[in-house]
Amino acid sequence: MSFGAGVGSMPGDDYAEALRVVIDTTPDLVSIPELPARGVQAAMTGRGMGILAELGADLQPAGWRLTGAGSGTDQRRARSMLSQDLDAVEEKLQGFDGILKVQVTGPWTLSATVECPRGDRVLADHGARRDLAQSLAEGIRQHLASVSARVPGASLILQVDEPALTAVLNAQIPTASGWGRHRSIDKPEADAALRSVAEAGRDSGARTVLHSCGPDVPVDLAAGAGFDALNFDLSLAEPGDAWASAFDRGIDLWPGVVPSMDADGVSDRVLGKRVRDFFNALGFGVDAYAERLVVTPTCGLAGASPAWAKRALRIAQAVGTQR
User: Fold this and answer.
1) Which pLDDT tens digit goes with each residue over 49-84?
2) Which helix H or strand E contains 284, and what residues bound it?
3) SS3 of 27, please?
């Protein structure tokens, strides 16, 4: 069976309403929504700081910074907000026995956006990168255990968001001064960090998907790290051997095809043809991917209007269930 689903983020600051929209429009694969408009604690990096285990952080004028073992006020707020959101999920999904998707920010995007205790990005410090990845993996285990306890009938999917992954690998992240760029991360270290969070998902009984909505997605790296699926912006993907090989190896491909910002003249028939054309270019017909397909917006919907967010999810559902 194929599905439509959201990437995760939604517009506005009414969590109960966002959750209702997600459940109503994509009932077979529900994505726990994230609402960045509620503040930095609810945005991608802040939510990641709330999931970390035994690693403190606080919010500085320049952004989030690791502190070691002690949690700052804003990290505690991020954790409290996450817990309140899960309370709402538990209430709305009583008796739910479908698929529930949990999103977390990946280790490399966090390393590129969070500072070390003495300044500069975590990306600049090998030990800090390792500690962050380990803390995130343990935090994921605890987070998924909490979700499972609240919605015990759900089959879980862990989505690891890595919008900065390509920039990290290609040495495109600026240093604190802005005059230089951080050195690229070699593939073995990149693999180890991604593998640790994928294993945390599998250990918790979840299928895992790596989401990257930028260009030049490192398909081989994602497949080698042990993810079960790869979610990507179809408009930025060039069909090629790496995609075909990953699919042959059992990695499901989730094309992001619905515009994530308000758009006119969007047709689920046209978008469905784009999905079919992509798989045809890889040498796979509908029968090969129909039972493995999840269609999403190109990226998160936080910047869209509420009306478009709802419509985008409906279109993703329509495209995902086409034959």
Assistant:
1) 999 998 999 999 889 999 976 888 999 999 999 999
2) none
3) coil
Alpha carbons 195 and 207: distance in angstroms, whole number:
13
In the structure encoding, which two tokens stand for residue 85, read together?
């959101």
Reported as a single tens digit per residue, the pLDDT across 22-49 is 999 999 999 999 999 999 999 999 999 9
Of 319, 321, 264, 270, which is closest to residue 297 (Cα–Cα)? 319
Q: Whose structure tokens read 């890889």? A: 282
- Element counts in the chain: helices (H) and strands (E): 12, 10
- Domain chopping of the chain, boundaries: 3-35+96-320
From 3.20.190.10, 1.10.10.10, 3.20.20.210, 3.50.50.60, which CATH number describes the 3-35+96-320 domain? 3.20.20.210
Look up the pTM and report it: 0.95
Q: Which DSSP helix (H) or strand (E) runs through 82?
A: helix 73-92
Taking every pair of Cα atoms in the chain, the longest distance, rounded to a whole number of angstroms, is: 55
* Pair type for strands 99-105 and 252-258: unpaired
C-alpha span between 294 and 307 (Å, rounded): 22
Q: Give the closest residue to 49 by CA, choosing from 111, 130, 126, 119.
A: 111
Cα separation of 50 and 142, whole Å?
A: 11
